[in-house]
Design a protein that fits this description.
By secondary structure, the protein is an alpha+beta fold. The chain contains nine helices and four strands.
């Protein structure tokens, strides 16, 4: 069986992959979660690629990071609980069908299985990039019903974020997450109440890549 060079462009046009992302997002919508659809998948793919390219990893490694980012939430189609493990299982079958080399498949599924803050760890460059990219997607555009933000702290914290920028400074070996938030909607303390575990994981992932992690909210450095 001849191997195939699978790219993000190829993956993003695959009917099965698109159907899985849309169905997974629909299920999360039914249980009240923020947007986890194509917008989120594409952004995480782009940021995963950006992180490794800025840190001067080779093009193929960055492309694999993008692929990992695009597939990371497909497991939500089964259940939110342990979705990272199901994402890995589903991705294995998809990438095998696409005839990706086994070594690359294994890199991707390992990263997918380790991206969630409850039980994951930065075990590779791909997983570290995915963790940072995924945890940095905090923005009001993810809130499905702005009229209800006052009732749910997760929606309120996301809706309070007007600007969310991820910067990789290779010279200073820093990964910087810069937020602009409306504190009238949600306080900085509420942000940490929801996202502290994610920021700790992002810092661990940054250290894995040989970088320091910095978090700024409204131009104030907090980490």
């Amino acid at each position: 069986m001849k191997n195939r060079r699978v790219t993000l462009e190829v993956l993003s046009k695959d009917k099965e992959v698109i159907a899985l992302i849309k169905a997974a997002d629909k299920q999360l919508e039914m249980i009240g979660y923020t947007e986890h659809g194509l917008r989120h998948s594409r952004l995480v793919a782009e940021r995963s690629y950006y992180i490794l390219k800025k840190l001067e990893y080779n093009e193929r490694k960055a492309e694999l990071a993008a692929i990992t980012g695009f597939l990371h939430d497909i497991g939500n189609v089964v259940n939110r609980d342990k979705h990272e493990h199901m994402s890995a299982i589903l991705a294995y079958q998809i990438l095998k069908r696409m005839k990706m080399p086994y070594q690359e498949i294994l890199e991707v599924v390992s990263a997918l299985g380790n991206h969630h803050e409850e039980n994951g760890s930065p075990v590779s460059e791909l997983s570290a990039a995915l963790i940072i990219a995924d945890k940095s997607d905090v923005h009001r555009s993810r809130v499905r019903n702005p009229e209800l933000v006052k009732f749910d702290i997760h929606d309120r914290v996301n809706y309070a974020v007007n600007r969310s920028v991820l910067v990789v400074d290779n010279k200073k070996r820093k990964i910087i997450f810069d937020l602009e938030t409306d504190t009238k909607i949600a306080s900085v303390m509420e942000y940490f109440e929801i996202f502290l575990n994610r920021m700790v994981m992002a810092r661990r992932a940054s250290h894995f890549l040989g970088c320091e992690f910095e978090l700024y909210i409204n131009q104030t450095k907090l980490i």
